[in-house]
Write a structure and sequence with these properties.
heterodimer; A: alpha/beta; Spore Coat Polysaccharide Biosynthesis Protein SpsA, Chain A; 2 domains; ten-stranded mixed β-sheet; nine-stranded mixed β-sheet; 14 helices; elongated; B: mainly alpha; 3 helices; 0% strand
């Protein structure tokens, strides 16, 4: 083990480089010496049979205030130390992670690896942070390195350090540059053998047990960990469906959208405690009412709407008539695919601080319609639209449960208290953007919004209403939320998938 | 609003919904006003991260070929302008 010391009193940054046969750290050393502020120390850890021992022994030598652990020949951006000094000036900051660059073999503009802002639920589904993670050294020393999770030590450390109560911050500046040929994903240390897969499972089981419970369904060797939150108790869920009771062509067949949606809920749903509140326009035919009443049975309640169309007012009325602790807003032009869709939405909605949860919606042709909202360039759109079903998305984002800026009201759940606290759907938006406005309000009150790929439905988008967006709606949205309509916190990849 | 008014029970519902709708609307209005206030706040004081991001973008722009080529193209004009200003100052 060797330690090279910087000049000036007291190093600010300690880099532990985990050595292995044939591994060199030329770029790292070069980049450290090129720092504008030379207050660092480099510890090259070797001569230990196990990674945890390597890091533990190195930790005893650490004198720096901030700590970086690397296992590749990364280069640090020239002003990294100054940047760290600046960021860690806030006493409550424990962890700072950054975007990355991956150098190209023949020079040229490096590939940029973008990361979302801190997303703890996404972190239990994939190690999206990767190696570009700077710790307050004291925190790591206090936590220590787990010795019973070979192959998952760094993931374990990241999970524990980010859940200790201190603040975790993300910077969009690429502080680390990776050598050419590095994988274009932060999750390079994914579990590749039976030992590391078992370790990752252990790490995740502990993590879930400490944070409200959950199940580790699968640990895949491509770095996606199928972990589910558990539903707490069995609260009543009110599925609120505003409808005109109209008919439309679905899968080459003309049928009632409402009956199709309700039938799919009753057939497929495994969650037992739910009611269906249909807010039905009084123009609906007698036939639709009779059929829906006969298939819905005791679960179904029809409330009549006699006013002119206003989506927001209709849903608010449905909420008023609902008895559940959780509201599940559902368009009538939807069809349930996955049987545990209610459980998936509910488990996320029950997380502390949760405001809403949304689903994965597909068009009739099996392409994605919605995988979360994207607010970019003063516009509101959908993530994943027109991607094929099963697409991974940038850094597996379409396969994992994650934090989002917003979700569509075509299928979303929220706790009743949150709905009331934000004033429900705003009547200022009778047709469009009512869900965008709702999500903005939920976010404004400090609640988190989640999205899950485990709640899958078809959405025969706008088969039951006009798609025209009026100037008034756009202007109203901007007047309220223009400053928040460029929100790349949880989807930094922009409208185009990588 | 939107409720059958054939029985007393329904008219009670109707009144209650009107009250509920008013509460929702007022809450919504408060949040709207709070949003407007926050919007002004953002306009008046951009966050540190935003400034960092903009600085980073400017750094990247200045390192780009487009910027350098543009500078080369504009150089004669700038020099000419400088010269003219100097002559004007005499």
């Amino acid at each position: 083990m060797t330690a090279s010391e910087s000049r000036e009193a007291g190093p600010l940054l300690t880099v532990i480089a985990l050595s292995a046969p044939g591994r060199r750290f030329d770029e790292l050393e070069h980049s450290l010496l090129g720092q504008s502020n030379l207050r660092f120390e480099l510890i090259v850890a070797d001569h230990e049979p196990r990674l945890d021992m390597m890091i533990s022994k190195s930790l005893q030598m650490v004198r720096g205030k901030f700590l970086l652990i690397v296992r590749r020949d990364v280069a640090l951006a020239s002003d990294t130390i100054e940047h760290l000094e600046d960021a860690f000036r806030a006493d409550d900051l424990d962890v700072l992670y950054s975007d990355e660059e991956i150098r190209r073999k023949k020079g040229g503009r490096p590939y940029r690896l973008l990361k979302p802002d801190f997303s703890p639920e996404r972190l239990r589904c994939e190690f999206y942070i990767g190696e570009a993670i700077f710790y307050r050294a004291r925190v790591v020393k206090e936590l220590g390195i787990a010795s019973d999770v070979p192959g998952a030590e760094l993931y374990d450390l990241a999970l524990r350090a980010t859940s200790g109560g201190g603040r975790v911050e993300h910077t969009g500046i690429a502080l680390l540059s990776f050598p050419p040929g590095s994988e274009l994903s932060a999750n390079r240390d994914r579990p590749s053998d039976a030992v590391s897969i078992a370790s990752t499972r252990r790490v995740l089981e502990r993590r879930l047990a400490e944070t409200g419970g959950g199940i580790v369904a699968k640990v895949l060797d491509d770095g996606v960990f199928e972990t589910h939150r558990r539903v707490l108790g069995s609260p009543l869920v009110s599925i609120i469906i505003p409808s005109r009771g109209s008919q439309s062509g679905i899968k080459d067949e003309r049928k009632s959208l409402l009956i199709n949606a309700v039938a799919s809920i009753l057939e497929k749903s495994t969650y037992d405690r739910y009611e269906i509140v249909v807010v039905l326009d009084d123009v609906a035919s007698r036939d639709v009412v009779d059929r829906i009443t006969s298939i819905g049975g005791d679960r179904l309640r029809i409330v009549w709407w006699r006013e002119p169309f206003n989506f927001s007012a209709k849903v608010n009325y449905g909420a008023f008539c609902a008895l559940g602790d959780y509201y599940l807003f559902l368009n009538d032009d939807t069809e349930v695919i996955s049987s545990s869709w209610i459980e998936a939405l509910l488990a996320l909605c029950q997380l502390p601080g949760a405001g809403m949860s949304g689903a994965m919606l597909y068009f009739e042709d099996d392409t994605i319609q919605h995988a979360g909202h994207l607010y970019e360039g003063k516009d509101a759109g959908h993530i994943g639209t027109n991607e094929r079903r099963g697409a991974r998305g940038p850094h597996d984002a379409l396969r994992v449960e994650r934090e989002v800026s917003g979700v569509t009201a075509a299928c979303s759940m929220m706790p009743r208290e949150v709905f009331d606290a934000v004033g429900g759907f705003s009547l200022l938006f009778p047709n469009n953007f009512n869900d965008v406005d709702l999500c903005m309000k939920v976010g404004q009150l400090g609640h988190t919004i989640y999205w899950t790929p485990r709640a899958e439905l078809f959405h025969f988008e706008s088969k039951s209403r006009s798609t025209r967006v009026s100037r008034y709606e756009v202007e109203t949205l901007w007047s309220r939320w223009e400053w928040k309509l460029n929100d790349l916190r949880y989807w930094p990849y922009g409208a185009t998938n990588i | 609003m939107g409720i059958e008014t054939v029985t007393d029970e329904h008219s009670t519902d109707n009144r209650e919904f009107t009250d509920y709708q008013r509460i929702l609307s007022l809450t919504d209005e408060i949040l709207g006003l709070r949003a407007a206030l926050a919007q002004e706040g953002v306009r008046l004081s951009p966050s540190r991260q935003k400034v960092d991001q903009l600085e980073d973008e400017i750094r990247q722009l200045r390192a780009s070929t487009t910027w350098r080529v543009g500078r080369v193209i504009m150089l004669p004009f700038w020099l000419g302008r400088k010269l003219l200003m100097r002559l004007d100052g005499r």
